[in-house]
């Protein structure tokens, strides 16, 4: 124990911080062994060389850039993808649907490329399951896609007020709701559901994997969930408080937001989670599916074999891409029908 910790209170503080460090190290080792998603316990994940290696295998073009922001303390990093043919001059009048991909905790936008997301997307396009699309994957750090309590990093506002408009202004997107969808995994699933449920006029569909869905009542969390979120409390304290503020948590929790989502305004909804999810998010997935059913809001809710992370996504993500493709194709067919809007 370091010097300077003399009282029992001091010792308790030191012990709590030490336990959190050991827990994060455990997550790192466990993720490396399982090749899972949350593989770097850091709010600043390192950019990996695997990005460039995978990028060279793609038919479309991926780019790292930044989004200017008047809301955030600095520009926000983003990875973008445009499909094959986007840069061909005689196709310069063609516009494309846009997919927003939200990454998980301890990740950055690079992971969508590094871990196979872009490759799976191109396979879906080649198989006809998904039309050619533009993808925008913004960096979100450890934000849970929420504004911080002190208001200094209003990420939710940034995404809605700056990121989405930036995509429409920068790329040849089809900016109508029917051509805009959102997908996320883990923390990104939490964010995708929150945005889709609070701004359903902006997104035609939402698809999530292993979304960080837990009950409104913090005391009702499972032992697994309490242990994980408890040790992560210091990392997300600026968003939810430490200990987690039940009122603030409930205000952004997709499980609560679904209870006020108007059925006639709801986007198309796809949920899935691994049956062995190490954070117990499979319980939350089932609960959200039940809430939506009670409110007579159509949804697909699947519990598939697997744990948590990109190993799970390798099997699950193609299902979500097919679902999103069906939504985008219906919107395109509707616009092509005489008299439709």
Q: Major sheet: order of its strands? A: 1-2-4-3-5-6-7-8
Work out the helix count.
Answer: 12
Distance from N terminus to C terminus (CA atoms, Å) equals 68 Å
- What is the CATH-assigned architecture of the largest domain? 3-Layer(aba) Sandwich
Q: Low-confidence parts, pLDDT < 50 over ≥5 residues?
A: 1-19, 21-45
Shape: globular
Number of domains: 2
CATH class of the largest domain: Alpha Beta
Taking the sheet with the most strands, its summary is: 8 strands, mixed
Order of helices and strands: HHEEEHHEHEHEHHHHEHEH
Determine the fraction of residues in helical runs and give it as a percent range.
40-55%
CATH topology of the largest domain: Rossmann fold
The CATH superfamily of the largest domain is identified as: Alpha/Beta hydrolase fold, catalytic domain
Query: What would the average pLDDT be, to the nearest integer?
Result: 86
Proportion of residues in β-strands: 5-15%
Radius of gyration: 20 Å
Overall structural class, as computed from helix and strand content, comes to: alpha/beta
Secondary structure: number of strands: 8
């Amino acid at each position: 124990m370091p010097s300077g910790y003399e009282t029992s209170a001091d010792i308790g503080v030191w012990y709590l911080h030490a336990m959190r460090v050991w827990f994060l190290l455990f997550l790192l080792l466990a993720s490396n062994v399982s090749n899972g998603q949350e593989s770097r316990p850091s709010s600043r994940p390192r950019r990996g060389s695997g990005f460039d290696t995978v990028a060279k295998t793609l038919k479309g073009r991926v780019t790292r850039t930044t989004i200017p922001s008047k809301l955030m303390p600095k520009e926000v990093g983003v990875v973008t993808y445009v499909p094959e043919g986007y840069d061909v001059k005689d196709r310069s009048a063609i516009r494309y649907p846009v997919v927003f991909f939200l990454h998980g905790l301890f990740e950055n936008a690079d992971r969508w490329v590094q871990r196979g997301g872009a490759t799976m997307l191109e396979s879906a396009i080649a198989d006809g399951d998904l039309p050619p699309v533009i993808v925008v994957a913004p960096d979100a750090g450890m934000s849970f896609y929420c504004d911080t309590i002190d208001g200094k990093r209003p990420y939710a506002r940034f995404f809605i007020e700056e990121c989405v408009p930036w995509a429409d202004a920068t790329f040849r997107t089809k900016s109508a709701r029917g051509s805009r969808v959102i997908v996320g995994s883990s923390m990104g699933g939490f964010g995708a559901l929150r945005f889709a449920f609070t701004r359903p006029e902006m997104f035609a569909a939402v698809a999530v994997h292993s979304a960080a869905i837990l009950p409104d009542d913090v005391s009702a969390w499972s032992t697994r969930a309490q242990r994980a979120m408890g040790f992560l409390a210091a990392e997300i304290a600026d968003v939810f408080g430490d200990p987690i503020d039940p009122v603030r948590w409930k205000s952004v929790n997709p499980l609560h937001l679904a209870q006020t989502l108007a059925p006639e305004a709801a986007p198309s909804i796809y949920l899935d989670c691994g049956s062995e999810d190490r954070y117990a998010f499979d319980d939350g997935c089932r609960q959200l599916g039940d809430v939506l059913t009670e409110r007579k809001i159509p949804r697909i809710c699947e519990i598939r074999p697997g744990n948590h992370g990109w190993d799970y996504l390798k099997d699950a993500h193609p299902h979500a891409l097919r679902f999103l493709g069906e939504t985008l194709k219906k919107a395109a067919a509707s616009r092509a029908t005489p008299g439709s809007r």
